[in-house]
């Protein structure tokens, strides 16, 4: 029988078990990700068509791709401020962003994170990291294509992080829309890489959102749901 980890009485991102796992992930990403992504782009260029989400996931299987530390602190701060009950993430990867989110849920004393990941090896890595950080009980990792796994979630969903395959940000958001709470907050990472259809959609008030860009990491689009889209 496995023994659950002993949680530190020091909360926040400075809790030793949280700080250790986040430091480990960010350090590994610095050493590994540039080379992995260079090879991934080279391999993708040899394909006869743009890679599918499954192909892209396989090409990037060894890349950690964590949110930048300042973006992680934004996520932690938003959860502490908004006190969401249901948080959803698209793109678990190795679990860094899940740790920022779950640490805030733990410190709030309520709430749960559902996060979706296509690559099985990353699911295992993320689960191990969450366990090491003492946060595994606050997170459910659902395997598979987020367009299916995040459909029909019990709502209301209060906070969404989009941090997976960029071309799927808008399809995933539309899958989640029926479950979104009024005034739900959506954080889309890697703004410089986002397709124009995503930013055009969330910046159009007719779709029921108000949105702005933030100069954190590689750019963040921070969006609030104002009313149910018609």
What's this model, at a glance?
The chain has 230 residues and is of the alpha/beta class. The chain has helices spanning 16-45, 53-59, 69-82, 96-108, 120-132, 146-149, 169-176, 196-202, and strands at residues 86-90, 112-117, 139-143, 157-162, 180-189, 209-214, 220-225. The chain has a seven-stranded mixed sheet, with helices on both faces.
Oligomer: single chain
- Main sheet specs: 7 strands, mixed
* Whole-number mean pLDDT: 86
Q: Quick one: how many beta strands?
A: 7
CATH class group: Alpha Beta
Beta fraction of the residues? 15-25%
Rg, Cα atoms, Å? 17 Å
- Percent helix, as a range, is 40-55%
Shape: globular
> Strand order within the widest sheet?
3-2-1-4-5-7-6
Count of alpha/pi helices? 8
What's the CATH architecture name?
3-Layer(aba) Sandwich
- Secondary structure class reads alpha/beta
CATH topology-level fold name: Rossmann fold
How many separate domains make up the residues?
Answer: 1
Q: What would you give as the CATH superfamily?
A: Vaccinia Virus protein VP39
- Element order, helices and strands? HHHEHEHEHEHEHEE
Separation of termini? Answer: 51 Å
Low-confidence stretches: none
SSE arrangement:
Blueprint: H1 16-45, H2 53-59, H3 69-82, E1 86-90, H4 96-108, E2 112-117, H5 120-132, E3 139-143, H6 146-149, E4 157-162, H7 169-176, E5 180-189, H8 196-202, E6 209-214, E7 220-225
Parallel strand pairs: 1-2, 1-4, 2-3, 4-5
Antiparallel strand pairs: 5-7, 6-7
Helix pairs in contact: 1-4, 3-4
Question: Could you characterize what this model shows?
Answer:
- Strands 3-2-1-4-5-7-6 form a 7-stranded mixed beta sheet, sandwiched between helices.
- A hairpin with a 5-residue loop joins strand 6 and strand 7.
- It is built from 8 helices and 7 strands, in the order αααβαβαβαβαβαββ.
- The chain is an alpha/beta fold and 230 residues long.
- Helix 1 (16-45) packs antiparallel against helix 4 and helix 3 (69-82) packs parallel to helix 4 (96-108).
- It has one domain (63-225): Rossmann fold (3-Layer(aba) Sandwich), CATH 3.40.50.
- The mean pLDDT is 86.
- The termini are far apart.
